[in-house]
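In the previous lecture we treated proteins in isolation. Real proteins rarely work alone, and many bind small molecules. This record shows how such a complex is specified: first the sequence, then the SMILES for zinc ion.
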Amino acid sequence: MGLLRKIIKKATRPIRAKRHGAVGERKVARKLNPLVFGKVEHRQINNLILVDNNGKSHQIDHIEIRENGIFVIETKNFIGWVFGSENSEKWTESLYTGKKYQVRNPIKQNKTHCYYVSKVIGPKYKVNSLIVMANDNADKIDCDNVINLKHLGRYLSNFDNGVHLTIEEMDYAYKKLISSASIMTNEEHIQNIRQTQREIKENICPRCGGKLILRTGYSGKFYGCSNYPKCKFTKKLTIFDLCRKIFS
Ligand SMILES: [Zn+2]
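The predicted 3D structure, ligand included, written as tokens:
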């Protein structure tokens, strides 16, 4: 019985995660609506999929373009407590029931999104990364750009890093991004991610198709792309890799 429950849980986790994710995105999209916190000139893009030169897709939850900046927003609908720091590989989602899950650090995830948004609109425009916790559980995360949904309006209004975009510039960035949007469906995007994960598992670089080879760095062994320094993709050694090394 225990095993069966485990299998069912494992099988339904991505579905549950997906559903939670969609709820979070809707909450943020609603909050970005200027009607909620006063009229403000802005351009809003929800659920944008960009495909890079290697055919890899990147799904961006929201892009908010305002006079004071361009924000690439990653929405997280974690439940319970969330612990993590800017540079840690994984964050911990700790449910009130005591269950813990390791989740990918959204700051790192969004860094990739920001990179591709920048590539589309050009280096003239500074892109700001923002992680929004739809369940207002960002309090244990000590990073300026990880905020609670309830603070989103205030954060965007008060944000000031000296940037002032004109209406023309806002329209330019908006149109450029919309015209670069892929016609890929969410389902195709998920297939694309699975393909990338398969490639990484088989030690094929997902960025350039090069081979991932074992290298030694300051903090130990890791896999790096054979096309380094042109391609800087790296992969950490898994427990499986370490066991194989010990027993081979
Ligand atoms: Zn590579």
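Summary for your notes: The radius of gyration is 20 Å. Residues 203-247 form one domain.
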